[in-house]
Amino acid sequence: MLESEFNRINLRKMVVKFYTSVLSDKLIGPIFIRKLGDDLSGVVWATHLDTITDFWASITLGDFAYKGSPFAPHMQLQDLSREAFQRWLELFSATLNSMYEPDLVVELENRSELIAANFMRNLRL
Ligand code: HEM
With contact defined as beta carbons under 8 Å apart, do 51 and 67 qualify? Predict the structure, then answer.
């Protein structure tokens, strides 16, 4: 059954599912593994998964749990490219489609595309 609303429980599941697919992707998996390792159930990833769950909760639920600055960490990463962002968006879309009803999918696809476009512009990609 597809989810008909966002909540912290399904956002957390979505985030875990998304990064599981990211880690096994040949193009962008290595970028994440270099920074955070490949153990999704370890401490380093737990922190990232918490941060990202807060990030999407602040967007979809309007809570204020996320207090970071989303762009900054991406400035240090090697191998970012338009192709890498495209892959990120494809994997994100596939995850959303596997979990949420279409209107919710579109909402987060639109948000992620806008953010990715901003990141690429700031990175001069
Ligand atoms: C190819 C594309 C991308 C790659 C390889 C990538 C990689 C990463 C990595 C490795 C981190 C952890 C950095 C650290 O802890 O120092 C990170 C953090 C983060 N990323 Fe991305 N990312 C990508 C695209 C995106 C997009 C499109 C979004 C949003 C729609 C996003 C949102 C975030 C957020 C919110 C954080 C946490 C920032 C913080 O610490 O507050 N990323 N990303």
Answer: no
Q: Indicate the number of domains in the chain.
A: 1
Nearest CA to ligand 1 atom 34: 70
**76 in a structural domain:** yes
**CA-116 nearest atom, ligand 1:** 27
Ligand 1, atom 18, residue with closest C-alpha: 73
> What is the spatial distance between Cα 45 and Cα 124, in angstroms, rounded to a whole number?
28
| Separation of alpha carbons 45 and 21, rounded Å | 14
pLDDT per residue as tens digits for the range 112-123? 999 999 999 999
Average of pLDDT values for 15-28?
A: 98
List, for residues 86-103, the tens digit of each pLDDT value: 999 999 999 999 999 999
Q: What is the pLDDT of residue 15?
A: 98
By alpha-carbon position, which residue is closest to atom 2 of ligand 1?
85
- Is 2 inside a domain boundary? no
**Domain of 115, in residue numbers:** 8-122
Instruction: Tell how far the Cα of 101 is from the centroid of ligand 1, in angstroms.
Output: 25
User: Residue length, the chain?
Assistant: 125
